[in-house]
């Protein structure tokens, strides 16, 4: 393997993609998807757990559910914006509520997908978000 491709692979492994969802199966699915793409997944069952973990400082992208106990996804996005205004946030939700979708996107979310989400589409949205941030 060439040194350039080794370095690109090492850099990709340092890209931390966070999943915040109270559903274990969704977190597990995102973990597998993110790992298969060569990124480093960090999983949290609540917004509070994520915000207290210190991972916000190293996250390259956050994928979050809208509806969760405690701090919901919209409030999580607001708190992320205070510390990391350009950190890409992707929403996934089982509830297609146009008002919630509009609020999330107006407040800076890069995507809003419905559950069950298409793995290839989510991966493409992650890659697009990471590319936008790097440029």
Salient structural properties:
135 residues; globular; 5-stranded parallel β-sheet; 6 helices; single chain; alpha/beta; Rossmann fold
How many domain modules? 1
Count of individual beta strands? 5
User: Taking Cα atoms only, what radius of gyration do you get, to the nearest Å?
Assistant: 14 Å
- Globally, the shape reads globular
Counting helices, strands and paired strands, the structural category is alpha/beta
> What is the correct CATH architecture?
3-Layer(aba) Sandwich
**Strands of the largest sheet, in order across it?**
2-1-3-4-5
CATH topology: Rossmann fold
| Beta-strand content | 15-25%
Spatial separation of the terminal alpha carbons: 27 Å
Topology:
Elements: H1 3-13, E1 16-20, H2 24-36, E2 40-44, H3 47-53, E3 59-65, H4 73-83, E4 89-93, H5 98-106, E5 111-114, H6 119-134
What does the model show?
The structure is a single chain. The protein has one domain (3-134): Rossmann fold (3-Layer(aba) Sandwich), CATH 3.40.50. Strand 1, helix 2 (24-36) and strand 2 (40-44) form a beta-alpha-beta unit. The longest helix has 16 residues, at 119-134. The chain has helices at 3-13, 24-36, 47-53, 73-83, 98-106, 119-134; strands at 16-20, 40-44, 59-65, 89-93, 111-114. The chain has a 5-stranded parallel β-sheet with strand order 2-1-3-4-5, with helices on both faces. Helices cover 50% and strands 19% of the residues. Residues 1-12 have low confidence and may be disordered. The chain is globular, with a radius of gyration of 14 Å. The chain is α/β, with parallel strands linked by helices and 135 residues long.
